[in-house]
């Protein structure tokens, strides 16, 4: 696949390269066909992509990558019927690649299969514990489950791996807001804004922290900043209305 990445341009150009390599017996045909299906899916050509994945699976029914991408495409139309088989496949094959575990875990988490998602994320971490995304998603899953202390622990590990990732500070701030620890939430929102001053979600989250501390003037300032960047952001619009309502009362 080195030749592909060296020549990487547009997706259409990449498809042409893959089609050429599919004719070359030196390369793994099924691997290339999975890559082709993935690109077609990214382009929104899901029916053609599915033909690629199905062709691979007809040749090798145990091809985990092909089955993952097939489930991913089916999930776009809310078809979860293959998830149990995907979970069974990844457990039985127990691949060494941390990334396939991570991707499957993320797919499960987006469909509220949190226990299965955590299992896969932990297997990803067992294979490579230096990947911040694995710890980030572990934290996000715990957050969705309402296990805020566990979520914070995972995010803290991710921050040790990459202390320059603004999204990690934002995530920690969101969790602290949920725990009603508003001073901490404000601190980490500001850490995020130091790295990404125009982060709309962070500006909203900071405004929400201040609102919950009844600091309506400060809250209004950050909410207005968020709306200047994105006037249609629903959360900011709703909070803006609430702030104005409370300011009229005081």
UniProtKB/TrEMBL annotation:
The record's annotation in SUPFAM superfamilies points to: TPR-like (SSF48452)
Fetch the Gene3D superfamilies from UniProt: Tetratricopeptide repeat domain (1.25.40.10)
Q: Which species does this protein come from?
A: Methanobrevibacter gottschalkii DSM 11977
- What keywords are assigned to this protein? Repeat, TPR repeat
Q: Give start and end residues of every TPR repeat.
A: 132-165, 200-233
> What is this protein's record name?
Tetratricopeptide repeat protein
Question: Record's InterPro entries?
Answer: TPR-like_helical_dom_sf, TPR_2, TPR_rpt, Ycf3/AcsC/BcsC/TPR_MFPF
């Amino acid at each position: 696949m080195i030749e592909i990445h060296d020549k990487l341009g547009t997706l259409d150009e990449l498809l042409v390269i893959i089609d050429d390599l599919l004719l070359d017996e030196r390369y793994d045909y099924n691997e290339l066909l999975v890559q082709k299906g993935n690109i077609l899916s990214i382009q929104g050509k899901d029916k053609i992509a599915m033909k690629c994945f199905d062709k691979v699976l007809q040749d090798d029914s145990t091809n985990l990558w092909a089955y993952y991408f097939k489930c991913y495409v089916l999930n776009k139309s809310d078809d979860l019927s293959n998830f149990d088989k995907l979970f069974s496949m990844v457990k039985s094959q127990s691949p060494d690649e941390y990334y396939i575990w991570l991707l499957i875990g993320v797919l499960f988490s987006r469909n509220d299969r949190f226990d299965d998602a955590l299992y896969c994320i932990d297997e990803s971490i067992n294979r490579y514990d230096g990947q911040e995304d694995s710890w980030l998603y572990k934290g996000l899953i715990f957050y969705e489950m309402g296990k805020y202390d566990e979520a914070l622990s995972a995010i803290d590990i991710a921050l040790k791996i990459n202390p320059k990732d603004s999204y990690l500070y934002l995530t920690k701030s969101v969790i602290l807001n949920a725990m009603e620890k508003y001073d901490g939430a404000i601190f980490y929102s500001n850490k995020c804004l130091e790295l990404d001053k125009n982060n709309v979600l962070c500006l909203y989250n900071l405004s929400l922290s201040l609102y919950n501390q009844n600091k309506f003037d400060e809250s209004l300032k950050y909410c207005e900043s968020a709306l200047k960047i994105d006037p249609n952001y629903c959360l900011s619009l709703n909070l803006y209305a609430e702030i104005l309502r409370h300011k009229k009362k005081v």
